[in-house]
Structure to design on (219 residues):
């Protein structure tokens, strides 16, 4: 592998791993805070998509270089359609980072009592009356987050009740005080390792980078 190929390889590596590294570092820092963090599910999905887009772009570049432009266009259409299909609506749900499910459920019930609502609960959902809301909860323990999906029962009179619920929940988590989680430290380590790999390769091939830069400047 000549110097130019080495530099190109490092740039490809940085392009693929850089966004993922920043994403994991961000998650780690969020999970290391003293308070939970509430994020709209749509925003959370878009940030994740931005982090993994380079993983899709690099194979597309190879396909184009092989002269398979129509195949590349097909892949772009499929990936774009999949993204649009999976993209949550603006008020489809919320993701709460740095919180355990039991504490999340307790805070939700507390907010409902403050608003004068009754709550019926089972293992995965809260049913809120008389506004007719159903709050489904899904959990990712290794990321230490809880995803809330709020929907209105058929014939319910929820109106803007889901907005009041989330506003009240957001106020409640601002008063929470928690210890830094091991998940936060682990995610920071993962992000740092992903970011450090291309930097390590770059420093160990600095002579190749210098040669390529010199060629560009003297061209």
């Amino acid at each position: 592998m000549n110097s130019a190929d080495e530099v190109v390889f490092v740039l490809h590596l940085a392009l693929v791993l850089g966004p993922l590294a920043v994403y994991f570092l961000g998650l780690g820092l969020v999970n290391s805070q003293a308070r939970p963090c509430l994020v709209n599910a749509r925003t959370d999905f878009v940030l994740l998509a931005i982090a993994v887009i380079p993983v899709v772009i690099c194979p597309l570049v190879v396909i184009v270089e092989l002269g398979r432009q129509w195949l590349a266009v097909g892949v772009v259409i499929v990936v774009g359609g999949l993204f649009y299909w999976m993209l949550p609506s603006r008020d489809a749900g919320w993701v709460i980072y740095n919180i355990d499910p039991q504490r999340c459920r307790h805070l939700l019930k507390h907010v409902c009592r403050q608003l004068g609502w009754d709550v019926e609960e089972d293992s995965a959902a809260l049913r809120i009356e008389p506004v007719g809301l159903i709050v489904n909860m899904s959990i990712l323990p290794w990321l230490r987050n809880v995803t809330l999906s709020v929907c209105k029962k058929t014939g319910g009179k929820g109106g803007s009740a889901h907005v009041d619920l989330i506003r009240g929940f957001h106020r409640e988590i601002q008063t929470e005080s928690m210890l830094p989680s091991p998940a936060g430290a682990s995610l920071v380590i993962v992000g740092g390792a992903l970011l450090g790999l291309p930097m390590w390769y770059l420093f160990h091939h600095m002579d190749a980078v210098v040669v390529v830069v010199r060629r560009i400047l003297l061209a």
Q: What stands out?
A: Residues 14 and 199 are 8 Å apart (CA to CA). Residues 3-31 form the longest helix (29 residues).
